[in-house]
Amino acid sequence: MNYTSFETERLILMPTTVRDAAFVLSLLNTPKWLQYIGDRNVKTVESAKDYINEKMMPQLERLGFSNYTLIRKQDQQKIGTCGLYDREGVDGFDIGFAFLPEFENKGYGFEAANRLKEAAFQEFGLTSLQAITSKENLGSQKLLQKLGLQLIGTLQLPNDPIVLLQYKIENNNVK
């Protein structure tokens, strides 16, 4: 099936598939992913393929959106991910993002997440977006606020003792 890809000035946002397994393996083992998101026990390209098939593809097939690999237009370099997630324990859809360290703090996060926020509201018909982040992840908090999300409280995901900050934005164009 063909799924929608998106573009920004500098990026192509392509639905993540098993062709991205080596990239996903690298991303899921970066220091900030491990610190702020957690170890997903993805240690080989094969386990990355399994992770994509089990964690990303079912939602993409069910809803038409999920996780997107961010590709820099200038050199086709895979630099990070951004996605809209139907996450257990979060009421509504969650927007999230992660980057390889060398591509952080260059504006790519806002560029990609803002485009997906627009798609969520204008193309996928979502009425609101949530986001969760750790209290220590100040970079993520700043980006969520820049995107217009507001802190609404805290929550804990099922079977996880960590208390996370919860952000939300409403689609004000819903009729």
TrEMBL record:
InterPro entries: Acyl_CoA_acyltransferase, GNAT_dom, N-acetyltransferase. The keyword Transferase applies. Residues 11-170 form the N-acetyltransferase domain. GO terms for molecular function: acyltransferase activity. Its EC number is 2.3.-.-. Keywords: Acyltransferase, Transferase. This is GNAT family N-acetyltransferase.
